[in-house]
Design goal:
Largest sheet: 7 strands, mixed
Structural class: alpha+beta
Low-confidence stretches: 3-40
Number of strands: 23
Distance between the termini: 31 Å
Strand order of the largest sheet: 12-13-14-18-15-17-16
Shape: globular
Strand content: 15-25%
Length: 954
């Protein structure tokens, strides 16, 4: 089936810290010079730390944070944070901070070899998804989510953290085996346009700093050849308690956890002559730095301008007030650019401006006002950049309007209110990030209640004049960087350095004040005539009530207490784009642009302004087999979400300007798509898996010429003009008696004829037999492999569990063989896809990237593991791991609104019993060595085998 059409999404090569944390941190740095800092007369009052977190320090200097939190129940988040990273490496140790992180999972004093991972998997902790770590320039962090209802497992969690902190054994053979894994990590993440362009940009972005010579991945020649003493010395020098913290948040007794920390970590010692931990900085640049880079595999023409500034650590109310104002500025400026992007004559495809961490946190402590523009060609890039810079100048010269500030203020207050309401339902992982920031950077950690009061107070005090004054400080004359990244074929038409600097200088010429385009009218002119609830049936085993409405629509209600301020819903009816004829299929594929264009008289920007401060959101969707509605809201705003559903059903918006702009932008994407090896390979995979069916092929430029707004709009209207067969599932913190009148008003009133609907089977199936396809595209030594074993089967819960068990066991074996034994890959993946309609079919997928020379060897190794599991079944150990992980995930899922929404919807779509989950544990228990062997022999059948390989071009 063809993928649904989406408005342009572009991945930019801008954040260059390849192994930076998911949440970039800031730390105090020693300034060599003063990068632009706005003066701040009022330093404010200190923000106190949350009294519910116990912060302490052992005699050896190790810091600890402990907080009791019962979301999720019977779980804890354990973290070991170290204030060291690649910046601490000697010249001959480059890459060894990251290498050390890998070695933490390859043998410690109390957990030899692979025993740590083996032990945790048996306890239901997933490697990668749960158990993980990362290394950055100045920090290495280990994470261990762990159950607390097993005393032994929970206690051992602290032993594991202590082993990471000071007991990694660094056996020589394990070091040598891991070299290949890390080289393959570099290959998987790099060997592409992003990496090549990054290597040219880093000397500019990190000019004259240690950061430029200390990327966490290191240097490949060192990774291949370093002697064992180099990494052992790094571990001995830097893994010490006075640079470490233990963070524990979860469902446990705080005093017991403090005892466990003292028992496990007090024996750790610091070196007698510790090496100083130097704080490194990024020097100023007085003159603008400009770099223009092209690459044959780069797909887009991108220009970026950065004004660096020094950031402040959040410690006082004044710091917090300033961060709120930056938030407001980013929101308002972003909204202006979004308005322009929706216009047919927009000079750019995408654009953004905002203040925040420099390059997403590339250098801790350095922030920047950053703007980028994406143009349709190299020749139009100067114009695109000038347009974005003009908006910055408009902001600086004329400021924002009170109406814009009101929108930003309402949205901040709505989010603040939601956080307070969810204070006792906040996930432990959220608290961990706050404490991690406190340890690494010194940022304050206020309580939810304090933050709520302070936010309300400061948002009320912030004036338009203050915001506009701060906005004027964002554009500076020093610490300026301009970079251009473009396809090599556009090189001759790109703006020169002189032209880029001139654009920067002249962008503000002729700008006038912004005019607000808000639409002052209600979403619905009047309420619809309400229908009725004509039947109510309870399914007590799972706490669900089923309503039948007077228009024939069914509604399943699942009230929960998992969140205090969340209601989510979705609906479905059979049909989707499968109903389109071959003649208008291309237009039907773009039907998703209709709901993205707004609703009624409101374009997307106007709709966002109308809904400022309101959490209610609703909309329509169309996929291959179904169409329906989705939405979410706080209980107080649920009526708004339902109103939006009614509006999208009865009053869709036909916006030719926005529709045509989206198609025009997509043409740019397709025109450059063939430059990227990954995109070419993905298109080949899609074509092969659909047997080259014309409705399953990737979209090309000629397809876009066949698209008609009228056909797309009419297809949308026809789908939603008759809502017969729609089934809604609503989950969350609602009251049964207050939600029913809303359902009668906005859902029971949806137009429905009572006519039965179904989807059409258009015959889009994967090819039978053995298929092999090799794509030659790419400049570097990097191969991608995807292997498919597939077929038709009987779709039922018992078969599906057996397939999942087989997938889990095969995944373990593929990882052990290809990564641990062969050292030939970084993160091989085993996937399982199952579907019932239009015909029940399963796909097992084995995929990985590797060196070109290793393709055949690794494919052979993977298929050998398939053969072994067919011959012998999964091992008892691997089945035990599967059962433990499944049980733990079920426990978490049963208290998650999104899980229930998905579970109920899928049971209804597939015609299965809604109480199916009550027997889930029994089905899991039925998995044995013999059942996995029988399942493997039946379904890992190479009669239907697809082999797809991407190799560098010859």
């Amino acid at each position: 089936m063809k993928k649904p059409f989406n408005i342009l999404a572009i991945c930019l090569v801008l954040n260059l810290s390849f192994y930076a944390p998911a949440y970039p941190q800031k730390k105090t740095v020693t300034a060599k010079k003063t990068i632009a800092v706005a003066t701040q007369k009022n330093e404010g009052t200190p923000i106190p730390n949350d009294p519910d977190v116990k912060i302490g320090k052992l005699a050896n200097g190790l810091t600890y944070y402990i907080r009791k939190n019962t979301e999720p129940k019977n779980r804890a988040e354990l973290y070991l944070a170290t204030r060291i990273g690649s910046l601490m490496e000697n010249d001959d140790q480059q890459g060894l901070a990251h290498f050390t992180e890998h070695m933490a999972f390859n043998g410690t004093k109390d957990f030899p070899k692979n025993e740590m991972i083996n032990y945790l998997q048996k306890a239901g902790v997933r490697f990668g998804a749960d158990l993980n770590a990362y290394t950055s320039f100045d920090q290495t962090v280990y994470q261990l989510p762990i159950p607390t209802d097993s005393v032994a497992v929970f206690k051992n969690g602290f032993k594991i953290l202590a082993n990471w902190a000071g007991k990694i054994v660094m056996e020589g053979d394990e070091i040598d085996k891991e070299r290949g894994v890390i080289v393959e990590e570099d290959r998987q993440r790099g060997k592409n346009a992003k990496e090549r362009m990054s290597k040219q940009l880093l000397p500019l972005l990190l000019k004259d700093s240690r950061y430029a010579n200390r990327l966490p991945i290191g240097k490949l020649d060192i990774l291949h050849s370093f002697t064992h003493d180099k990494i052992r010395n790094f571990y001995k020098d830097w893994y010490r308690p006075n640079l470490q913290a233990v963070i524990a948040v979860g469902d446990f007794d705080v005093n017991e956890v403090e005892r466990l920390i003292k028992a496990n970590f007090s024996e750790l010692t610091n070196p007698l002559n510790p090496r100083p931990r130097v704080a490194y900085d990024l020097p100023d640049n007085i003159a603008p730095l400009v770099k223009i880079i092209t690459d044959p595999e780069q797909q887009y023409n991108v220009a970026q301008v950065m004004y660096k500034q020094r950031g402040r650590i959040m410690k006082t109310s004044a710091d917090y007030k300033k961060s709120l104002m930056y938030n407001m500025i980013n929101s308002m400026l972003g909204a202006r650019l979004q308005e322009i992007m929706q216009k047919g004559n927009a000079p750019f495809i995408q654009a953004q401006s905002g203040y925040g961490p420099y390059q997403g946190g590339l250098v801790p402590g350095i922030n920047a006002f950053q703007s980028f523009a994406v143009s349709s060609s190299g020749a139009t890039l100067e114009k695109a950049l000038t347009a974005v810079l003009a908006e910055n100048e408009r902001m600086s010269k004329y400021g924002f309007l009170q109406s814009e500030l009101d929108v930003a203020r309402k949205n901040i207050l709505a989010g603040n209110e939601k956080r307070l309401k969810e204070k006792d339902k906040t996930a432990s992982s959220s608290f961990v990030q706050k404490y991690l920031n406190n340890f690494l950077t010194g940022t304050s950690i206020p309580s939810t209640e304090f933050a709520y009061e302070l936010t309300n107070k400061l948002v009320g005090e912030i004036t338009l004049e203050q915001v506009n004054a701060l906005a004027k400080t964002l554009i500076t004359t020093e610490n300026l960087i301009i970079i251009v990244q473009a396809p090599e074929k556009e090189k001759a038409s790109l703006p020169t350095e002189v032209q880029l600097l001139a654009a920067l200088k002249n962008a503000g010429n002729g700008v006038t004040a912004y005019v607000d385009n808000s639409l002052n009218k209600p979403l619905l002119e009047q309420k619809p005539a309400a229908g009725k609830i004509v039947n109510e049936q309870k399914i007590d085993q799972i706490g669900v009530t089923e309503l039948t409405l007077s228009n024939g629509i069914k509604v399943l209600l699942k009230p929960t207490d998992f969140k205090n301020d969340q209601i989510i819903f979705s609906s479905f009816s059979k049909g989707g784009t499968s109903l389109a004829t071959d003649a208008n299929f291309q237009s039907a594929e773009t039907v998703g642009l209709i709901p993205q264009s707004g609703v009624g008289d409101f374009n997307p920007s106007q709709l966002n302004k109308l809904l400022a401060g309101n959490t209610g959101r609703g909309g329509a969707y169309i996929d291959g087999l179904y169409q329906g509605y989705r939405g979410s809201a706080s209980p107080k705003d649920l009526e708004t979400a339902f109103q939006m559903v009614y509006a999208y059903a009865t009053n869709p918006r036909k916006d030719a300007e926005l529709f045509n702009k989206s198609i025009s932008d997509y043409k740019v994407v397709l025109a450059n798509k063939s430059a990227d090896p990954g995109s070419v390979f993905a298109d080949t995979v899609q074509a092969v898996l659909s047997s080259y069916h014309k409705r399953g092929m990737p979209t090309n430029l000629s397809d876009l010429d066949k698209i008609s707004l009228d056909e797309s709009f009419n297809f949308y209207k026809n789908l939603f003009a008759d809502n017969s067969g729609q089934t809604f599932v609503i989950v969350g913190a609602f009251n049964m008696e207050t939600i029913k009148p809303l359902i009668e008003t906005y859902i029971a009133s949806l137009p429905a004829s009572g006519q039965a609907h179904n989807f059409v089977d258009n015959g889009i199936y994967p090819p039978l037999g053995k298929v092999s396809k090799t794509v030659y595209k790419g400049l570097e030594d990097k191969a991608s492999v995807e292997l498919y074993l597939h077929g038709d089967y009987e779709f039922n819960a018992q078969n599906n569990v057996q397939l999942e068990a087989l997938k889990a066991a095969l995944e373990i074996k593929i990882l052990e063989r290809l990564r641990e034994k062969e050292s030939g890959v970084y993160s091989p993946r085993v996937g399982l896809s199952i579907k019932k309609y239009p015909k029940a079919h399963y796909y097992f997928t084995i995929s990985f990237s590797c060196a070109t020379a290793n393709v055949e060897k690794l494919i052979g190794a993977a298929l050998d593991e398939v053969k072994q599991i067919k011959d012998s079944g999964a091992t008892a150990d691997d089945i035990s791991k599967f059962k433990s992980e499944e049980q733990r995930q079920i426990e978490l899922s049963l208290r998650d609104n999104s899980y229930w929404l998905s579970y109920l919807t899928n049971r209804l779509k597939n015609g299965e019993a809604l109480t199916q989950l009550l027997d889930a544990q029994q089905r899991i228990n039925n998995v044995t060595v013999e059942t996995t062997r029988a399942t493997a022999q039946k379904y890992l059948n190479e009669d239907n085998y697809i082999r797809l390989v991407l190799l560098p071009q010859k």
